[in-house]
Amino acid sequence: MYETIIIGTGAAGISAALTLKQLNKDFLWIGTKNLSYKINSAEKIRNYPGLSNVSGKEMKEMFIKQINDMDIEILDKQVTGVYDLSTHYAVLCGQDTYEAKTIILALGVESIKPVEGEIELLGQGVSYCATCDGFLYRGKDIIVVSSSKEFEHEAKYLASLANKVVYIPLYKDIDMDLANVEIIKGMPKKISKENKKMYLELKDSKLEADGIFMLKAAISPAVLVPGLEAAEGHIVVDRQMKTNLNGVFAAGDCTGRPYQYAKAVGEGNVAAHSVVNYLNNLK
Amino acid sequence: MYETIIIGTGAAGISAALTLKQLNKDFLWIGTKNLSYKINSAEKIRNYPGLSNVSGKEMKEMFIKQINDMDIEILDKQVTGVYDLSTHYAVLCGQDTYEAKTIILALGVESIKPVEGEIELLGQGVSYCATCDGFLYRGKDIIVVSSSKEFEHEAKYLASLANKVVYIPLYKDIDMDLANVEIIKGMPKKISKENKKMYLELKDSKLEADGIFMLKAAISPAVLVPGLEAAEGHIVVDRQMKTNLNGVFAAGDCTGRPYQYAKAVGEGNVAAHSVVNYLNNLK
């Protein structure tokens, strides 16, 4: 069992990982090795102390160098759930389970609100994870809603399994030219289920399929961690970054505005120190 | 009258100034142009995201370059008092007075009365921060002076790295039972350095080591700002860095532990955004 599991590889997760490594803690860090896609898209960052007028790409290079210098590993998986086992926590990544005494949630922030019916039908025809649930739709018809270009490879993986895919990109510059993929533009309004069939309503149409995948960067925290207190889409924390769940801490955009690198690294650092204090008090 | 006055040129003050400049705010920034003396004395910083394994001096160079790049001025004076004039605040620097609608306190943390030689040898064998400098003393002999029970876990962390620790508690109810830790009671009188060895003089003895850690609490900035609420030497703030005084915000070490650059820049950033929100609500 790990002392802590950090979930998320944005600025807050990076800060927490660097600090826990320096403090010789035994932790697992789960998230995309490519770090947050938001870092890539930042044109110029001028107010992050220490890096004068860098691009997001330059900042990302520095982060990756530092992670390598400190000999820190990232487990490149998508977390599908965090469960309270009363003495510790279990983190699920599809079929795999990892256990830890404490959790640091550095999930980033969901830019797109859940569609009506989405949360209610999660696990009953709606999925967030291509790797985890794709095999359930072999030879079937699915709808894939994607919030970013970075999920195109997941959509292609789904297309390799499914009979037919209706792909709904919520971004520009689409690169998805496959025989069994139809691209439809539009903003999802509502998800419903009837007679084992899933329905997605757009503005002027209603699509039918066997399953619906919602591919997005950040999953609503309360969906990921049952029992977690959230308000207006953000995890509720105190000054020590404690959540309402004992041993669960949160940091970065998922705890609220301002959505800034400086704020995120500060909170990641505080969360790491709070984990250490918490573990010391367990002894 | 300024929109805000930032007091202090450590990491929190720098972060607040960069953000307010980027947001085109009209502010005055008061403090030493040499930045915080603590930055100079940090030997190696490894867990500040974006700057991999820099010395305090290198970090300071980058901060100064960035301040110049952004065309920000520092008024190099010492603040002697901050007074609430009900509609706004007056900041006194000896004979000079400056007025602003809001204040950001980025005061750092003042140690209790330093021992003779302590300030002079800071960063040259004397350290205030186990997390920051502990790894420099792997396998070496150190002296740890601790003003409070709350620092015992930091001392234990140091003991996990060092060959031998002489622990000098300045409090009762000591819980420090480790094979390589010797507890000595006494009040430190003087620190000196000779031939790369550090010496700490007590009343009747003189101890030798490779490094000396001084773990101590802080004094209250309530002396500087009458009416300011403080607890255990730290300014009381909420998640938006608001103090109990309307329009007064605080950030960095003065708001509490951990005393880390990442935490300070995060809080400076949040304080700057809170000032902007506060000014918007005045209109």
SSE topology sketch:
Two copies of one chain form a homodimer.
Chain A: E1 2-7, H1 11-22, E2 27-30, H2 37-41, H3 56-69, E3 81-84, E4 89-93, E5 96-105, E6 126-127, H4 130-133, E7 141-146, H5 152-161, E8 164-169, E9 181-183, E10 190-194, E11 197-201, E12 206-209, E13 211-215, H6 221-224, E14 230-231, E15 234-235, E16 248-250, H7 261-282
Parallel strand pairs in A: 1-2, 1-5, 5-16, 6-13, 7-8, 7-13, 8-9
Antiparallel strand pairs in A: 3-4, 4-5, 10-11, 11-12, 14-15
Protein described:
Chain A has two domains: 2-111 and 218-282, FAD/NAD(P)-binding domain; 126-215, 3-Layer(bba) Sandwich (FAD/NAD(P)-binding domain), CATH 3.50.50.60. In chain A, 25% of the residues lie in helices and 25% in strands. Chain A has seven helices and 16 strands. In chain A, a hairpin with a 4-residue loop joins β11 and β12 (206-209). The longest helix of chain A has 22 residues, at 261-282. The model of chain A has no long low-confidence stretch (mean pLDDT 93). Chains A and B meet through α1, α3 and α7 of A and α1, α3, α5 and α6 of B.
